[in-house]
Structure formats: structure tokens, C-alpha cells
């Protein structure tokens, strides 16, 4: 089985013994959070359709812990903005992000959400990072499900490495203040 | 079979375990999780748009009536459970008593029917 393509997940650094494994709380919480991210699919256009196929059985985002989507911001971890956001829709996106419970991440899927895409016009918001802080950008028009999954895995890496104190720290407050969010 | 009071201990143990789990997870998540509040964040969630007013609107009384009638007749059925357990011991006396009980409730049910309370489309 030396050339098997199956690999075992790496354990975080810790002390191992007979029947126990001790690691830091941050690592444990990060691992739990990363493998159970519940997305809020803010699907607007064509990228939303690509996300639908990502949710379906062939590409299956449920493998990564995102089996249960949440359209309620209070119960979601990741805000996945997929599709063109017009300037009329922008306050809605901001309010939804505002009302998400901490810790929260934002995945911007597709060219329109990242930068306005092909629609360089008066009515389209030129990228959601003008209104909310974005963690991972997935380019593409639309990106293939594999690319969306890659972006989601990057969010998982961020969640794994994040310290449990980060959301209470002043740097985070400053980041949000720069967007006009308390 | 005669049940001693201590035979019901597993029920209380299960209740205590359920309560302990709830308390433990609430304490753990509230201490581990970030706590950030702001006025806009704590507003009622209405899919990103401003929520206007409160949700107090007049609701049709038929919902209340159906619910309350359910409670009444459900209690009646609950009373029939002890009768079912002690059926043989209560024999004919118990039967006539239950008949009176159910007869009184049946009169109430006829009243409900005649008054048209269960007509949903009015």
C-alpha cells in the first residue's frame, strides 16, 4: 500500500501517550471549529448554481463539515457570498454579516463578489470587500466546484490556526471599525 | 408487580444527566466563545433588512379554540390510562363511573359541534 492516495489527517502538536492525547485548548477548539463550519450561502447568481452542484453528491461540501447550511446568520460560521452584489443589495450583505455570531469568516466566491467581475458599472458593487472584511477570495467566472472546495479548505485552515482570543482583541475591533462596523 | 419508590431512581438520574449536559455545554460555549454586542448586531434578524415594528398582530381565535379543546380531550384520554391498568379490579362499578365521566364530556363535545366551533372556514 505504499503508493496509496489515502492519507491520514495530521494531528496538532501535542503530547501523546497510551490512550490519551493532550494538546492546547486553541488547537482543540480550532480543530472542532474547522471541521464543522456551517455556511450561510449568500448565493445571488451563476456562482450560486455552481455552489448548488458543490452541495450535491458528486462534489459534496458535506464532507468538509458543511452539511448543514444555515440561512439564519445567528447560526452560521461562514458567509459565502456567491454572485453579483448590486449596490442596492450591499446594505443587506452588510447587515447579514453584522448579525452573524462570532467567530465568523467570509468566503467571496466568483469574480463579481471579489471585484465586481465583468460588470464595471454604476449599479454593481465593485467587490464585497468594500463593505465587509473578506477572508478568502475564490476567483472564477464561475469557479468550478473544486475551486470553491479549495477556498472552503482555506477557510478551514484559517479556522484551525485562529486563537480563541482573536475576536476579543483590539486589532479585530480596529479591523471592523475600518469598515464602519462596531 | 409492586414498585418501590427507589425503583424510579433511573428516571431522576436520566433527568439529572440531561440537565447536566445542557448546563455544561452552555457554560463551555459561553466561556470559550467571543462576546461582542452592538446595537445593530442585536437587532431582530430579518434577512438583512431593517425590521419595522413588532410582530403583534391580531390572530384569529380559532387557533386558540382548537388548542384548548385538544388539551381538554387529551386530559380525558389521560384519565383513561389508569382505568386501563386497573380494568379488572374496577370491574362493573368502574365501568359505570367512567361512562358517567365520558358522558359529561360528550355533552360538552356536542355543544362544541352545535356551536360550529370546529368549522374552520368561517
TrEMBL record, chain A:
Required cofactor(s): [4Fe-4S] cluster
Textual note on the cofactor: Binds 1 [4Fe-4S] cluster.
Gene: nuoB
Enzyme Commission number(s) of this protein: 7.1.1.-
Protein name according to UniProt: NADH-quinone oxidoreductase subunit B
Quaternary structure and partners: NDH-1 is composed of 14 different subunits. Subunits NuoB, C, D, E, F, and G constitute the peripheral sector of the complex.
UniProt binding sites for [4Fe-4S] cluster: 46-47, 112, 141
Catalytic reaction annotation: a quinone + NADH + 5 H(+)(in) = a quinol + NAD(+) + 4 H(+)(out)
Natural source organism: Aquirufa novilacunae
Superkingdom, taxonomy of origin: Bacteria
From TrEMBL, chain B:
Record's signal peptide: none
Main localization, broad class: membrane
This protein's record includes keyword Protein transport: no
InterPro entries: NAD(P)H_OxRDtase_bac/plastid (IPR023043), NADH_UbQ/plastoQ_OxRdtase_su3 (IPR000440), NDAH_ubi_oxred_su3_sf (IPR038430)
Places the protein is found: Cell membrane; Membrane
Transmembrane segments: 12-32, 63-83, 95-113
Top-rank taxon: Bacteria
Membrane topology: Multi-pass membrane protein
Protein name per its UniProtKB record: NADH-quinone oxidoreductase subunit A
Function: NDH-1 shuttles electrons from NADH, via FMN and iron-sulfur (Fe-S) centers, to quinones in the respiratory chain. The immediate electron acceptor for the enzyme in this species is believed to be a menaquinone. Couples the redox reaction to proton translocation (for every two electrons transferred, four hydrogen ions are translocated across the cytoplasmic membrane), and thus conserves the redox energy in a proton gradient.
Family membership: Belongs to the complex I subunit 3 family.
Oligomeric and partner information: NDH-1 is composed of 14 different subunits. Subunits NuoA, H, J, K, L, M, N constitute the membrane sector of the complex.
EC number: 7.1.1.-
Broad class of enzyme this protein falls into: translocase
UniProtKB keywords: Cell membrane, Membrane, NAD, Quinone, Translocase, Transmembrane, Transmembrane helix, Transport
Native source organism of the sequence: Aquirufa novilacunae
Catalyzed reactions per annotation: a quinone + NADH + 5 H(+)(in) = a quinol + NAD(+) + 4 H(+)(out)
